[in-house]
Every structure is written in structure tokens, then in C-alpha cells.
Specification:
This protein has 668 residues and is mainly β. It is built from 1 helix and 54 strands.
């Protein structure tokens, strides 16, 4: 009995397993049969829909079909999933629309464990070809790409949110591509003027800001027949860790400004102790696959050598990168600038070169000094001071922890001034030199050669040189060259004197005219011409001149002044006198007698008739001799005449009595 029971147990156990397996197989077969029926019924229901309705709600293509639903049929609880997609299968020579017909796939899975029971598919064609073969439709090919490693991203839901054929959505495949076909072209304006693409990203991904609407990659206006190919770039954000160290390698304990930059922008961060973690730059999470540069400026302006590398270290496995920057040893550079021996305030001082190839700049204070702190210790620095177009430079080294003093003297030159007046050197003229880059004011006095020199003048432009004497001045602009002497010639102003000499109202030719005096003690002379005029040109402007004219022992003079670049007219009248002639016959005064005076220094001829008392007076007669005086009185019965020669006329009043001595009557 024991043996029989053991045998029964062994046989029964095996038989039970077979029976259990048979029951399970029967149940699965039954469920698959039911699932096939359900799937086929779902396909048939979809086939009966209008072609435009064959599509998942808000899917690609859109339609009225629900993407997923649950059913309970004869004890089977299952989920029906429907996928509908366009098929790109154009006939030869036809226009490619990527939407020639639709493929429908119905999948049934068991509710309790998600096991797929069946998957059935069918194709649905449009009842008629699209107008114009679909040539007016537009297409959007959107590919989702990970910029970190330039690989496509699958399983991303792409939403076509706006536009006349929206909404639609679809998920990317292995190539990261989604195609939205058979799209109606956009109108020119209105709410449907653009198709906008957005992404439902997997956890940990973000999209580049410019690849979201209204960025050009995700915001398009489509024309009839247009195919819009676009790439939507996504990434897993990276992290940058930054640590600063002192020159001895210890942790940097001060405050610093750290700048992180890439081709997408830069941002400055305050470092108050390390490490500094950077997750966003300019409001954007750190984009991987780019070259980033990290620089730091510490207390006093000391700069750490920047570091550059690609971030992150191993995308997408390791999304972080570390930067370590070390500040160099520093010293102090004190620069003093002088010009012509005086402090040069406002000079621009630059420090260039050195181990970091720096470029520093500063401006001297009122004492001509400027200090640069925290300069990297090392050799090869060039220090240059510039002001007013002049510059001086030198090279120097900076020692760690020490102050290096640099003295710069801006270049100077000289100014040599010569002063003339009417072509002659002017001694004792006051000469001033003013202006220039330092606004100097210096003065001096010309020597016997009319010269004065100014040394040690700051090199540059903008100088004014002025010479003055006796109330007259002249000036000129000048520039001073480095180590050179600039020559400046100044001519004090001159004018013209025109002397007109007359005698008894007549122009006097051959008169000697002299011009003397004035600020230069001038003494020049000349002779009048037929017009009685003599011109003195290039006469030093000023006062105290005397103009004198001489002729035939007689002279006249006048004082005058000469205006700068003007003309002084001087009239000189030689002296005259009056001559009264009395005509007598015996002891009897003769009225009505004709008197004629000729000769004298001007060879004049004067004629008159005696009046009561036998007198006739001639005025304005040139002083001098010899004059000849003739008198006559003609009558038929008793003509009379007389002549007196070698008569002299003096200045003032002169008188002469002439007595008829002949019985003639000469013509007048």
C-alpha cells in the first residue's frame, strides 16, 4: 500500500502539472482568440470612419480615434492601443506629400500584467486623390537632437500647437524624427499664421531657448508645397565647479569676481569661498559640448590666469566639470611723471607686458604719481606715460611683495625767438611763451641781436609766442619737438608814411624829406617827385615821429604817429611871406599901375594893380630870392615903367617901393 501510494503521488504530481499547463494554455489561447476578435472589430470600426476622421485625437494624423481604452469581453480585461500614421508611398512621378494613405495598428494587452495578446494592422486609403495631387500641402520634419553628443533623442513627444492643421502630436522614433504631413499652408496673418512646435521632454532634459517659439527653429509660416526641415536641440544641463587658490597653492580666502563665458554668453559671479557652483549662465542652464573659459579678478585687481576647456567631462555619464585657478605672486608698481621738471598731472600711464601680457592704465594725480597694486611679479613690463601728444617709456621688473618705483620724464625741447621791426633786430622787446600741453607761461627780453631763447619746454603743440615793445606786439603759434629747438620769427607791425610838400599851394619837387624818431629811432630821407609826394614804407608802428621837408634853404616839419599796418598822411607847407609894392612917380604915388613879381625859389609869376596910395600887396609868396619886380603904367601921352631885381622875400611882411624910371610901357 505504501508503494502504491508513492507511485500514485508521483504520477498524480506529474499529471497535475500537465493539467495545470493545459488549463493555462487553453486560457491564453482563448484570450488571444478574444483579443484577435476585439482587434479586428476595432479595425473594422476604424475602416468605417471617414478618411479625415481616421487618426488619433490630437495625434498625427489627427482624427476621432481614441489612442487607448480598456475593454472587458467574456471575462477578458484588456487595453486597446491604437496607432495611426501616414504612409509615404507616392506613385511614380507623383508629388511627394509623405501622406499618401494611413496605416492603422491596433494592439491588445492583458490588463493584469500588460502582456501583449495580439497586434493587428490595416491600411486605409483616401476615397479620392487630394486636389492637385496634394501639391498644396506642407510638411514639417522635426528632429530632436541632443546637443551634448549630437545624437537623436527617441520617445520625445512633439506638439504641433498652432496653425490651421493643429493641434497634432507625435513621438520621435530611433532617428529622433517626427513628420507632420498634409498640413494646410498658413495664412498671411491671424492666429493661424504660424505653426509652433513644442516638446514634452523626458526627465532631466531641457530645450535650447532659441529652439522654442518664436525661435525660427520652432516657429514657421509654411507656403503651399513647402517642406520645413528643422532640428530642435535639447540637452542635459551641465554643472561647473570653480575653486580659487592663492599663489602658494592654499585656498584663496578673499573675495573675487569670477567670470564664466562661452560662445553662448557670459556671466560674472561673486566668489566668497570655494567651491563656486555654476548651474546657469545668463539665465540659461549650462549647455554641454561647448568650450568654457573661467577667469577671476581678486582683491586689488589681481588676475588669475584663465582656464578654458570643454564642459562637461564625460557627457552624459558625468555632467560636471571642475576649474581650478591660481592667483600669481604680485607686487606694487609706483610711477611718477614729470615734465620740464614739474609734476605732470593728468598724464595717462599704461603698463603692458609682463608674464601675463597685461594691459593696465591709470592717470597721474596732482603730484604726477599713479600706483598700480597687485601687479603680477615678473619681468618684461613696459611703462609708458602720455600727455598732450608727448610720451616717455621704460621697461621694468616687478618683485613679489615689494614696491617698484619708476620715474618718467616727458620729453622737452627749446624755442628760439627772433624779433625784428621794419627788418631790423629789436633789442629790449619782451617775449612771452605760453600754452602748450602743460599751459606754461615764461617770458624773456631780446638782446642786441633781437633774440631770446626758452629751454626745457614740454614737447607738444599749442604754444603761443608773443613779442611786444613800445605798445606794439606780434604773435605766432608754435610746436615743440622732442629734443629739438623750434625757431620762431616775429616781425612787429609797421605802417606807411606819405609826406606831401607844398609851397604857396604848389607841389614841391626835389624837396628833401626826412623821417626821424619813433620807437626804433628811425632816420630815413628821400626827395619828392614832381607831385611833391614822398612815401616811406615799412615804418615801425608807434608814436614820436618827426617829418621834415627842406628846399632852397627853407624847411617845414610836423609830428606824426604810425598805426599798425595803417597809413599816415603828412602835409608839409614850406614858409611864405607877403610883399607890398608901392609905385611912385617922383614923389607922387601911382594908382592904376600894373605890378608883376617873378622868380624866387619856385619861379612864380604874380601880377597886380596898385590902388589908392600906389599900393598893391601879394600874399603867400615863397620865402627866398631873387625876385624881379616890374611896374608900368601905359598911356598914349606919357608911358612909364620901372624894374627892381634881386628882391628877397622873408617870412612875414615885406615892402618895396619902386619908382618909374623909364618912359616905356612893356607888355605884362
Amino acid at each position: 500500500m505504501l508503494i502504491a501510494m508513492v507511485l500514485f503521488l508521483v504520477i498524480a504530481t506529474a499529471l497535475g502539472t500537465v493539467i495545470t499547463s493545459s488549463i493555462s494554455s487553453h486560457r491564453l489561447s482563448r484570450e488571444k482568440t478574444i483579443a484577435d476578435e476585439v482587434a479586428l472589430q476595432e479595425l473594422e470600426s476604424i475602416r468605417r470612419l471617414p478618411y479625415e476622421s481616421v487618426g488619433v485625437v490630437s495625434g498625427n494624423p489627427p482624427g476621432t480615434v481614441v489612442a487607448s481604452k480598456t475593454v472587458s469581453v467574456r471575462g477578458l480585461n484588456a487595453t486597446i492601443t491604437t496607432q495611426i500614421s501616414y504612409v509615404n508611398d507616392p506613385t511614380p512621378t507623383s508629388y511627394a506629400t509623405s501622406a499618401n494613405y494611413k496605416r492603422v495598428v491596433v494592439t491588445v494587452t492583458r490588463a493584469r500584467d500588460g502582456k501583449q495578446l495580439t497586434s493587428q494592422s490595416t491600411y486605409v486609403a483616401p476615397p479620392a486623390r487630394a486636389p492637385y495631387g496634394g501639391i498644396n500641402f506642407a510638411i514639417v520634419n522635426a528632429q530632436v537632437v541632443d546637443v551634448g553628443d549630437s545624437t537623436p533623442v527617441s520617445g520625445v513627444t512633439v506638439q504641433l500647437g498652432t496653425g490651421p492643421s493643429a493641434p497634432r502630436s507625435d513621438s520621435t522614433g530611433q532617428t529622433g524624427l517626427v513628420t507632420f504631413a498634409a498640413l494646410t499652408a498658413n495664412p498671411e496673418s491671424g492666429p493661424d499664421a504660424y505653426y509652433d512646435l513644442t516638446l514634452d521632454l523626458p526627465a532631466g532634459y531641457v530645450v535650447l531657448a532659441e529652439d522654442t517659439p518664436p525661435g525660427a527653429a520652432a516657429h514657421a509660416q509654411l507656403a503651399p508645397g513647402q517642406t520645413f526641415d528643422t532640428a530642435l536641440r535639447v540637452y542635459r544641463p551641465a554643472t561647473i565647479e570653480i575653486e580659487l587658490r592663492a599663489s602658494d597653492g592654499s585656498a584663496y580666502g578673499g573675495v573675487a569676481t569670477v567670470t564664466v563665458s562661452s560662445s553662448r554668453g557670459s556671466e560674472a559671479f561673486e566668489y566668497t569661498g570655494g567651491p563656486l557652483t555654476v548651474t546657469t549662465i545668463g539665465g540659461e542652464q549650462v549647455v554641454p559640448g561647448l568650450e568654457y573659459t573661467v577667469s577671476a579678478v581678486g582683491a586689488g585687481g589681481v588676475e588669475a590666469p584663465p582656464a578654458t576647456k570643454y564642459v562637461p567631462d564625460d557627457y552624459p555619464t558625468d555632467l560636471s566639470s571642475s576649474f581650478t585657478l591660481t592667483f600669481p605672486p604680485v607686487g606694487v608698481l609706483a610711477v611718477s611723471v614729470t615734465w620740464a621738471g614739474a609734476p605732470a598731472s593728468g598724464a595717462t600711464v599704461t603698463v603692458t607686458g609682463g608674464p601675463d601680457d597685461v594691459s593696465l592704465s591709470g592717470t597721474t594725480d596732482a603730484t604726477g604719481a599713479v600706483t598700480f597694486a597687485n601687479v603680477t611679479a615678473g619681468t618684461g613690463y613696459t611703462v609708458t606715460a602720455t600727455k598732450g601728444g608727448a610720451s616717455a617709456s621704460t621697461t621694468t621688473d616687478v618683485v613679489e611683495g615689494e614696491t617698484t618705483t619708476v620715474a618718467l620724464a616727458l620729453p622737452t625741447g627749446g624755442v628760439a625767438v627772433s624779433v625784428t621791426w621794419a627788418g631790423s633786430p629789436v633789442a629790449g622787446a619782451t617775449v612771452t611763451l605760453s600754452g602748450g600741453p602743460e599751459g606754461i607761461s615764461a617770458s624773456g627780453t631780446t638782446d642786441g641781436t633781437g633774440s631770446v631763447s626758452f629751454a626745457n619746454a614740454p614737447a607738444g603743440a599749442g604754444y603761443t609766442v608773443t613779442a611786444s615793445k613800445s605798445g606794439q606786439s606780434a604773435s605766432a603759434s608754435a610746436s615743440v619737438g622732442d629734443g629739438q629747438t623750434t625757431s620762431v620769427s616775429l616781425a612787429l607791425p609797421t605802417g606807411t608814411v606819405i609826406a606831401t610838400v607844398t609851397w604857396a599851394g604848389l607841389a614841391v619837387s626835389g624837396a628833401t624829406v626826412t623821417l626821424t624818431g619813433g620807437p626804433m629811432g628811425t632816420s630815413v630821407s628821400g626827395t619828392t617827385g614832381a607831385s611833391g609826394i614822398l612815401t616811406f614804407a615799412n615804418v615801425p608802428a608807434g608814436t614820436g615821429y618827426t617829418v621834415a621837408a627842406t628846399r632852397s634853404g627853407q624847411s617845414a616839419s610836423a609830428s606824426t604817429s604810425v598805426a599798425a599796418y595803417g597809413t599816415s598822411n603828412v602835409s608839409l607847407a614850406l614858409p611864405t611871406g607877403s610883399l607890398t609894392v608901392r609905385v611912385r612917380r617922383g614923389s607922387s604915388n601911382q594908382s592904376g599901375a600894373t605890378v608883376k613879381v617873378t622868380g624866387g625859389p619856385m619861379g612864380i609869376t604874380l601880377t597886380g594893380t596898385t590902388v589908392s596910395g600906389g599900393l598893391v600887396t601879394f600874399t603867400d609868396v615863397p620865402v627866398g630870392s631873387p625876385y624881379t619886380v616890374k611896374a608900368w603904367k601905359c598911356s598914349v601921352s606919357n608911358p612909364k615903367s620901372a624894374t627892381d631885381s634881386a628882391v628877397t622875400v622873408d617870412a612875414g611882411s615885406n615892402s618895396l617901393t619902386i619908382t618909374f624910371s623909364t618912359n616905356t610901357c612893356p607888355l605884362p
